[in-house]
Specification:
Elements lengths: L2 H30 L3 H27 L21 H26 L3 H31 L3 H12 L11
The chain binds MU-OXO-diiron (FEO).
MU-OXO-diiron binds next to helix 1, helix 2 and helix 3.
């Protein structure tokens, strides 16, 4: 396997676990505000990020690569408004998309077709992640300033259920 692609995927494992930590911190924030549905949404998001990390971990192992686990940074964002975590989550997903694209470009440059095929799932997944994050901001802007609207939105987000990733290695 190409050394650069391997190193980038190894770094991405850390970014995915950091994403999980960041979203768990957002769940923590909403839970403290009494918004259990928002907290549920982000708890599930955090689980998905752990899945992403484990898929990369497994992929590297399947390709005889050594994985190095680095320290996961502390989520240190402070949120002033209820909508702020949603905006931060959207920005973070855009950052992750750029990161996945960088790995894809490295795989393409190295003619690492297997890695490209593996990463195809993540390219698509990032499209969904960005859309979900953006949709949440839109809903919050539309309904969040009204107590009844916020209650309904919280109820909607409480209904999110975890499902394992569709990608199986
Ligand atoms: Fe692992 Fe939210 O992208």
């Amino acid at each position: 396997m190409d050394a650069k692609v391997s190193a980038l995927l190894n770094e991405q494992i850390n970014k995915e676990f950091y994403s999980a930590y960041l979203y768990l911190d957002m769940a923590n924030y909403y839970d403290a505000k009494g918004l259990d549905g928002f907290a549920n949404w982000f708890e599930i998001q955090a689980r998905e990020e752990q899945d992403h990390a484990m898929l990369m971990y497994q992929y590297l192992h399947n390709n005889d690569q050594t994985v190095t686990l680095e320290a996961i940074a502390k989520p240190d964002k402070v949120y002033a408004e209820l909508i702020d975590p949603l905006k931060a989550a959207y920005e973070h997903e855009q950052f992750v998309t750029a990161s996945i694209h960088t790995i894809y470009a490295a795989a393409k440059a190295a003619d690492d077709f297997r890695a490209m095929q593996f990463l195809d799932w993540f390219v698509k997944e990032q499209g969904e992640e960005e859309k979900n994050a953006s949709d949440l901001i839109t809903k919050m802007e539309l309904f969040g300033s009204d107590a009844r609207g916020l209650y309904m939105l919280n109820q909607e987000l409480a209904g999110r259920v975890y499902s394992a990733p569709s990608l199986v290695l």
